[in-house]
TrEMBL record:
PROSITE patterns referenced in this protein's UniProt entry, alphabetically: PROKAR_LIPOPROTEIN
Presence of keyword Signal: yes
UniProt keyword Signal present: yes
Organism domain of life: Bacteria
Record key words, sorted: Signal
Designated name of the protein: ABC-type nitrate/sulfonate/bicarbonate transport system substrate-binding protein
Signal peptide: 1-27
Length: 397
C-alpha cells in the first residue's frame, strides 16, 4: 500500500492539484540548482575508518523518501552537509554526506516522494532508477511489491507507526478509543482500503462504515465532525488545533498501532537484487543511519529548518511550518514512536516475530483485496545483517 501522506490540513490543496504540480515538477528537473551552498565543507573522515564511505558506496548516495519533506524523515536530511545545494526544479537537495561532523567522502541526495514523483510507490521508483540506494518502504508496501519490485529493509527508523484515527471529542464525549467511537457507527474516512480492512477483520467496524474518499484536506472533517479520519499523531493534532482557523481546538485520536497496525513505518530498504553489490557500503552506511536518527531527535532544530526551507523551495502545494516540524520531532520521542527495538534493545533492528506477524496479518488482507497472489516469506523482506548492536537510544552511541 502506498503511504498516503497528501493530507496536511494546512495545505488546503486537492489531490488533483497536487498531481498537476507533480507533472510540472517531474518535467522541470533540468533547471539549474536554485539553492546556494549553505556553508563550508566539513572536515574529511579518517581514511579507511567506519565513517569513510569513499570507494565502498556510490559517489552519490541517493535516498528516496515516500512523501514531501517532513520531520519523520529527519535522519536522511540531517546527513546533508553544509555545502548543500537545493534544486527547486528537480526537487532534490544534495551535499556532502556528513556524519558525526565529518565528510564521509561521498555525496548524499535526498528526493521527496508524493506529487514530486507522480505519487509512484517507492519500490517502483527504485526499480526505475538504479541510482537510488535507500528507499523508505512501509513493510505492508514491501509485501504488496514483493512479486514485481522486491526490496529488503536494512534498518528501521521509526519503530511504531504514528498513523491514527482522529475524531471530534465534542461529538463523541467520553470516547477515548477507536473501538469506542467506531461502535457508534461513525464513518471511517481513509485514503486506502488496508486500514479499514484491518479494522473489519477485527470486528471493530462494519464494511458499511468504510469510506476511502479522503483527499488530504481538512474540509470534510471540519464540516462533518461525526466522521473518524486518518492522520498522523506527529502532525494532525498540532495542525488542527493551531493552524486550521475553522477548527482551532483539540482532536481526539488513538494510534492505529494499538489496534493491530503493526507495520514498520518507512524502514530504509534496498532493492533485493542489489543487496549483494551494496553489502560493503551497507556495512558502514546502516550504522550511520541508525545513529543519524538518534542524533537528529536530540537536536532537531537545524534539520527542521532545512526541511521547512525545502518545502518552501519546492513549491508543490505542500505546506509545512516550523511549528509542525518541532511538534513532530518531540512527538516521535514523547509518544513512543521512535524507540529501541523492544525485543533486542537495539535501535533500528527488526524483530523476527513482529515481521512474521506483519506478513501473516497484511499478507492475508492484500490477498483478499486482490493486490497480491502469493504472500512472501518474512525473511525475504528484511535483514539485520548490517545493524550495529551497540547503537541504542539513551546511550552515548
Amino acid at each position: 500500500m502506498r503511504r498516503t501522506r497528501g493530507r496536511r490540513g494546512a495545505a488546503l490543496v486537492t489531490t488533483a492539484l497536487a498531481a498537476a504540480v507533480a507533472l510540472t515538477a517531474c518535467g522541470g528537473g533540468s533547471g539549474p540548482p536554485s539553492g546556494a551552498a549553505a556553508g563550508p565543507a566539513a572536515p574529511a573522515a579518517p581514511a579507511g575508518g567506519p565513517l569513510d564511505l569513499a570507494g565502498v558506496c556510490p559517489a552519490t548516495v541517493v535516498m528516496q523518501q515516500d512523501w514531501q519533506p517532513e520531520s519523520e524523515h529527519g535522519a536522511m536530511y540531517s546527513l546533508v552537509g553544509p555545502d548543500r545545494t537545493i534544486d527547486a526544479d528537480a526537487k532534490t537537495v544534495k551535499g556532502s554526506l556528513v556524519a558525526h561532523g565529518v565528510d564521509t567522502g561521498v555525496d548524499i541526495e535526498v528526493r521527496p516522494g508524493g506529487p514530486s514523483v507522480g505519487f509512484q510507490p517507492v519500490p517502483a521508483l527504485m526499480y526505475l532508477d538504479d541510482s537510488i540506494v535507500l528507499g523508505a518502504v512501509n513493510s505492508d508496501e514491501a509485501i504488496s511489491s514483493a512479486a514485481s519490485h522486491a526490496t529488503v529493509a536494512v534498518t528501521s527508523q521509526i519503530t511504531v507507526s504514528p498513523q491514527i484515527l482522529m475524531w471530534d471529542p465534542a461529538t463523541y464525549p467520553g470516547k477515548t478509543t477507536i473501538r469506542d467511537v467506531a461502535a457508534t457507527g461513525a464513518p471511517v474516512v481513509t485514503s486506502g482500503d488496508v486500514i479499514p480492512a484491518l479494522l473489519e477483520s477485527q470486528g471493530i467496524i462494519a464494511a458499511s462504515q468504510s469510506d476511502t474518499s479522503y483527499d488530504g484536506t481538512p474540509a470534510r472533517f471540519v464540516s462533518d465532525p461525526k466522521i473518524m479520519q486518518q492522520g498522523f499523531a506527529t502532525a494532525e493534532p498540532y495542525i488542527y488545533e493551531n493552524e486550521i482557523a475553522q477548527w482551532h481546538k483539540p482532536v481526539g485520536f488513538e494510534k492505529l498501532a494499538d489496534v493491530g497496525y503493526s507495520i514498520y513505518p518507512e524502514p530504509l530498504a534496498v532493492r533485493a537484487d542489489k543487496l549483494d553489490a551494496l553489502r560493503p557500503c551497507l556495512q558502514k552506511l546502516v550504522p550511520i543511519m541508525q545513529q543519524a536518527q538518534i542524533d537528529y531527535l536530540k537536536n532537531p532544530r537545524p534539520t527542521n529548518q532545512l526541511i521547512v526551507d525545502l518545502v518552501n523551495a519546492y513549491q508543490t502545494g505542500w505546506t509545512y511550518s516550523a511549528g509542525v516540524a518541532d511538534f513532530s520531532a518531540k512527538a516521535q520521542v514523547d509518544q513512543g514512536f521512535v524507540t529501541n527495538d523492544p525485543a533486542s534493545g537495539v535501535f533500528g533492528q527488526f524483530d523476527p516475530a513482529r515481521m512474521q506477524k506483519i506478513v501473516d496479518t497484511f499478507g492475508q488482507i492484500l490477498q483478499r483485496n486482490g493486490t497480491i497472489i502469493a504472500v512472501p516469506g518474512p525473511k525475504s523482506l528484511y535483514t539485520n545483517e548490517f545493524i550495529d548492536p551497540n547503537i541504542r537510544m539513551g546511550s552515548s552511541g
